[in-house]
Amino acid sequence: MEILWVLIAAVMLGFVLLPFLRRRRGGIEQVPAGHPDAADPEDYGFVRQEELDIRMPGPDQDLLDVLDLVQRTQDYKAASQLLAGTEREGELRWQRVQAFAGAASLELQQRPGGVSEAPGGQWLRVWRTEQPKDAGGAAVHAEFLVHQAWRTSTPGTDEFRIIMEEAKVACGEAALLAPGDPVPYIVELSVARGLAYSQAEFEQLWLKILDRAPAHMGAHLAALHYWCEKWHGSRELAYGFAEAAAARAPRGSLLAAMPLFAVFEHLPEVNLVSGFYRSEVVTKAIHGALHAVHSARADDPMLAHVRHLLVFFLVRGERWAEAMSQLVHIDGHVGALPWTLSADPAAEFAIYRALAVAGYEANGGSPATLTQ
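Below the sequence we write its predicted structure tokens.
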């Protein structure tokens, strides 16, 4: 039944998006469905909305294969082996730990268990019981508790604090099992935000991460949340943190895109002025992110994260061709900001994608002229 409702929602959204938009004489004009000028994302080989993968920002076939096996068999061993073979200091290990923890948390939400049914995510409990010294399992368990705190309780409540305190202990246990691994400390960044660490305490934690992985993009993004004005910092502190990271970014690092994430975290709740997205602050941040994307390794696990956020800002700024250039690299996966903030990430992404296609074609673009 749940899948049926998802499909119904997808069809309804299709009716909303069918009359795509076309620019004429500086304005936006609706084009009726079926009109020869109506833009169609499928003409560009883009994935249908109902087939978009909301689990990850980009492809990781090894992870998908293992996740499928673990969830189908409820046997954790393949997950343990995958993490054991993943570089500790890299971005990929952090993403895989997040994916396994998120999968277990979602399973538990969908199947809380009962008298005659085991709870979802049982494979993680078995993993921790049978392999208590497995560093990968310990890190996944710590991140799982963080997911549970945010998913099942409200910040500031006793329930939230109890789960977060348990996560803090789990982070310490994971760190002891893998002294050179930054992931347990990156997990603790979310704990620090939830438990309102003092700035001095947070900076001590941050130094432990810098000692192990100073250019870790995922860690910087997690730390940025703490410094935002909606949590324990301010707009100035968040911008300062992001700009400092960008300034010291080594060649080929995506840290140069950090200011764009800081801008996103401080967007006004309602902004109907398109000129805002062409302002000096936003334009500078976009250019920094574009530079980072162009200079990064093609296989950088964080590249898709930056491309997704660029699509959001480029569409808002009506920079259609540049938005399309990013879409051809990330289409098919939508598990990243800003789409994951929506109740329906695939639908949100599909709207921006349709606008990008419509704007691109309204300004003379076509599938034949699109370059990557």
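The CA atoms of residues 180 and 212 lie 6 Å apart.
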